[in-house]
Amino acid sequence: MMRAEPWQTAEVCGPKKAQSLEKPVVVKALLKKAKHPLLVVGANSLTEQTRKKSMIDYFIEFSENWNIPIVATAQTIKAFKEKGFKNVYSHNAMEITYLLTDPEWMVAPKKGPHDLVMTFGFPYYMEWLMLSALVNFSTEMKTVSLGRYFQPHASWSFPNLKKQKWNDALKEILTKNGGKK
Amino acid sequence: MQNLAEASKLKGETATISPIFPSYYARKWKERTTLTEQKRARIRADRLDTGFGSFRNVEVSIGRVIDEDWDEPMGPTPMPEVTTLRDWDHKLLKRYQPSYMPACQLCCLCTFGKCDLTGGKRGACGLDIKGQSARIVLAAANIGCAAHLAHARHLVDHLIHEFGPRTPLTQGEGVDIEAPVSRLVTGIRPRSLEDASSIIDYCETQLTHTLSAVHTGQEGSWLDFESKVLHAGMIDQVGMEIADLVQISTMGFPQSDPEAPLVEAGIASMDQSKATILCIGHNVVPAAAITDYSMEHGLQDKVDVSGICCTAWDITRHDSKAKIVGPISWQLRFVRSGLADVLVVDEQCIRTDIPLHAAKVKTPVIATCDKSCMGLPDRTNDDVDAIVADLVSFKVPGVFIGDHSKVGEVVVKTALAVKPKRKKKSSLPSKNKIKELAQTCRQCSECRRACPNDQPVMEAVLAASEGNFGPLVDVYDECIGCARCESACPNEYELHSWMVTAAKDRWMNESFKVRTGRGAIKDTEIRAVGQPVVFGEIPGVIAHVGCANYPDGGRAIHDMAEEFAKRRFIIVLSGCAAMTVGTVKDEEGKSIYERRTGAFDAGGVVNVGSCVSNPHIAGAAIKIASIFAKRNLRGNYEEIADYILNRVGAVGISWGAMSQKAASIASGFWRLGVPVIVGPHGTKYRRMLLGRADKAEDWKVYDARTGNQVQIAPAPEHLFYAVETMEECMVMTAKLCFRPNDTSRGRSIKLSHYIDLHERYYGYFPDDVHSFIRRESDIPITLKDKIHVHMKEHKWQEKPIPDPTILQRMVYGGGDG
Fold first, then answer.
1. β-bridge partners, A20
2. ipTM for the assembly
3. Chain A residue with minimum CA distance to B107
């Protein structure tokens, strides 16, 4: 395991830094506690593969297990729609970031504000900035970066994992660790 | 008279008493008089005898007399000060609110700090994270504006020195409104270089104010920081417009010419049998001195002059035989190739370590601008031959020469003399050497971590260690030339050079044609397209501008331009984006410029020129309001911006935005009501301006006919917006072209493009179509059945089409207030 430090050169942050996500079970605990979690999925999900399963398939399984809505940014939505998945919403990455800083806003009505947001599939620097907005302007919200590399502005983030280890961790979070709440 | 005499002596020619407008002018002037009455009086004498001496060819300029030729009435805001348009800004910022993504949660600008601004804390000065974030945005806009303004000031002063203050300004035939942005903002129509100088005086004062607001203990509100951002952006547009107007008028550039020359571009366009000179930067004056010297001395068969970045555009506008190497990101690869015998740097966007790289290939560097002396010795006042001798003998790696007329001679003589001595020395390693070095790679991943585009540099190096150079070529294709991978490498390997070597076959054969910058859009062209643009029948004007910080190698710019040109949008380009778009060739080997007209018309691909040509794009929108809609534009900013926001479907795209200049350029468009999309790296500007489509109350306008407030669709939905992908950019571009004023025919055309692109890239019918349909007649005929179902699902109701304005005073009769 590598150190929990920003992956991309010079992307250091301020005083507040993510906790290193050493054990996938932490995510399960966060999910159990959350009242209205949300998964935000970027376009890099379309090209990312973990073993033989596409990330889109993993996310659909995860969403169905936990009844979590998904926001798909850019053209990522197409991959979800093609699989007939319904619990998915289309927003731009900047737009969803901004909306999440509004405590009144929610992707699906009547469930209350989002208290846990998980992110995946963005260019490193873009996710870094999206999470910066959330850490600064949505201070009550917990965020989990599911990417391979450490995102200091998240509440929880993997600490720059080797690819195999990250694949295993993701699999544990998105499938084996799933199950009904 | 003594001051006048001293001034005359200093300038060696006509003296003027200046400036006309003192720094506090606008408000004072409005109290006293109107600008219509302002024009300099001038006394000229072949001989003037005074008590302290006799003078020949004296010209004295005092005050102003009436500009009786111009009968357009002055609007309410000539030469606005920082707060004059604050209400307009606040209206925009209420609908398009800043969304901040701070790059840092600290402030370290004063000695109170560092201050921790996390969790709602305020710093020692009282600013919170939102205010600090807005302050950083203003700092960027100020820096960008300053770069353009200083460029404009240099051009104006230089050209006054060369040609005299009364040299007329022109954009050529068919252009009566020669400087729409300046007219709109200042209320002055610049007719001569001295008018241009007066306008720059005004801009410099405004920039001083917006810059001072960044100081500790000044502005405290994010909203007012943002208002000042818009002000700096507007001033930037004026400064750029003046810069381009003066060079177009005096330096032989194409003047609003849709058939501006097609020029050679790409590294292979350079004739290596000649002494080759590469000019990098934005200020054409030194480069023009080089081509002029070469031509005047009959050396064009022996010397090839080329450029990188905006100097490249402007040198080809000055001399169409000059070449364009490529955009800003190609500096390092070209310098290290050793193909340039002399490097000339002027200002802006130059790699600041150019002398280090040039020294390795024995290419002398000539710095020519006071903003970028590069640590080189000042040889401005030395004998030309002495300078050349020192450069050719490599006694000095380069020199700074502040006298542009001397630059031409030094550079050409040096290039000719040094060529046989340096023999195109290159610092690029051989493939064998790369393979050998690659075998010692430590596999630390630092190169990949340093790559802004997360390119698999290390993996490519490991492949090269086994003799497979393909992956390095792939990295080269998406490389932005920053060389951060090299800085990170613990072995200090020149990894960028490795990519360049691997891809040598590619760039050595790279040659394409681009249409050089035409300058302004003709009034006659505006007259022809004004109505279809405002009514929506030409679905939009899309401007690709800015730098080459591309996420994907830049092909996306071409693909987007081609897609929308096919759809009969008007495509306008400038700067590095305008070069990149030409790099893609069709099956016949033709670039987009060879395939499409350069006229400002549906399907046209219009290169206006360099960075400072951007105001021609803003100017086209302004001229639509003036020429088609007959709105007065003189000193009438709010009304015209309101017109553009509600009627002109224009969108700016800066796919590779990198600089602070790009930030200030965008700010100038925002204040005019033109939305801007940036590529993914544009998120690093750390602030978006986003509308809330879900908040109906944000989307109301006055109907100017009735004064009633009317609900409109969220159009344009955002003012500043970053996207992840080209596909997303295309969908949003089509959407951001909607305007409240679209006619039914125009709206149906725009809807059909939006729906088509949305279905193609997002895979489904967009779920917000109903909000853009006001009447049955808005529905595209071919999609009627589908849309009717959608409308029923959303309980659609007919909505009025207003004569839209967000300014209550624009209601006929003045409205309630």
1. A157
2. 0.96
3. A14
Q: Is residue B255 part of a domain?
A: no
Using one digit for the tens of pLDDT, what is the confidence trace for B82-136?
A: 999 999 999 999 999 999 999 989 999 999 989 999 999 999 999 999 999 999 9
Is A78 touching B (CB cutoff 8 A)? yes
Token duo for residue B308: 């990188």
CA distances from B160 to B153, B164, B190, B317, B792 (A): 11, 4, 14, 20, 66
Question: In this structure, are B211 and B292 located in the same domain?
Answer: no
- Do the domain assignments include residue B675? yes
In one-letter notation, the amino acid at residue A118 is M
Q: What is the pLDDT of residues B748-783, one digit of tens each?
A: 999 999 999 999 999 999 999 999 999 999 999 999
Q: What are phi and psi of B347, to 5 degrees?
A: -145, 155
Report the chain B residue with the minimal C-alpha distance to residue A124.
B454
Same domain, B162 and B305: no
Please tell me whether residues B319 and B237 are part of one structural domain: no
Determine the distance in angstroms separating the CA of A77 from the nearest CA of chain B, rounded to an integer.
6
Residue B690 CA to residue B101 CA, distance in Å, equals 13
Ramachandran area for residue B85 (φ above 0: left; ψ -120 to 50: alpha; else beta): alpha
Q: What is the CATH number of the domain that holds B307?
A: 3.40.50.2030
Core vs surface per residue A118-145: b (16+ CB within 10 A) or e: bbbbbbbbbbbbbbbbbbbbbeebbbbb
Q: Give the residue from chain A lying closest to B729, CA to CA.
A: A74
Closest CB to A97 among B101, B104, B763: B101
Look at chain B and report how many structural domains it folds into.
5
Worst-scoring range by mean pLDDT, A83-97, B3-17, B605-619, B646-660?
Answer: B3-17
Q: What is residue B304's three-state secondary structure? A: strand
Can you give the residue ranges of every domain in chain A? 19-176
Q: Using CA atoms in the order B545, B548, B554, B558, what is the torsion angle rounded to 10 degrees?
A: 20
The structure tokens listed for B54 are 């006799």
Those residues whose C-beta lies under 8 Å from the C-beta of residue B684, and which sit 6 or more positions away, are: A125, A129, B103
Strand order in the sheet with B97-100: B97-100, B687-690, B718-722, B676-678, B650-654, B541-544, B570-574, B605-609
pLDDT at res. B589 = 96
pLDDT tens, residue by residue, B26-47? 444 444 344 434 445 555 666 6
Q: Using CA atoms, how far apart are residues B224 and B507, in angstroms rounded to an integer? A: 48
Q: Which of B688, B721, B724, B754 to mutate to test the interface with A (most CBs of A within 10 A)?
A: B724
- Which CATH class, in words, describes the domain spanning A19-176? alpha beta
Residues B627 and B775 in one domain: yes
Q: Which residues of B touch A107 (CB under 8 A)?
A: none
Q: Are residues B396 and B443 in the same domain?
A: no
Same domain, B278 and B392: yes
Last residue of a domain, one of B217, B250, B283: B250
Is residue A69 within 8 A of residue A108, CB to CB? The reply is yes
Pairing verdict, β B676-678 and B718-722: parallel
Specify the residue for token string 């001195």.
B289
Bridge partners of B571?
B542, B605
For the residues of B234-248, what is the DSSP string, one character each? Answer: HHHHHHHHHHHHHHH
List the domain range (segments joined by +) for residue B48.
2-64
Among B500, B530, B560, the domain boundary falls at B500
Please indicate, yes or no, if residue B207 is contained in any of the structural domains. yes
* Interchain contact, B728 vs A7, CB within 8 Å: no
The DSSP string of B447-498 is HHHH-TT---HHHHHHHHTTT--HHHHHHHHT--S--HHHHH-TT---HHHH
One domain, residues B179 and B239: yes
Do the chains contact at A43 and B724, CB–CB below 8 Å?
Answer: yes
Closest chain B C-alpha to A76 CA, distance in angstroms: 7
Mean pLDDT lowest among B36-50, B208-222, B675-689: B36-50
Is there a domain that residue B138 lies in? yes
Smallest CA–CA distance, residue A180 to chain B, in Å, is 30
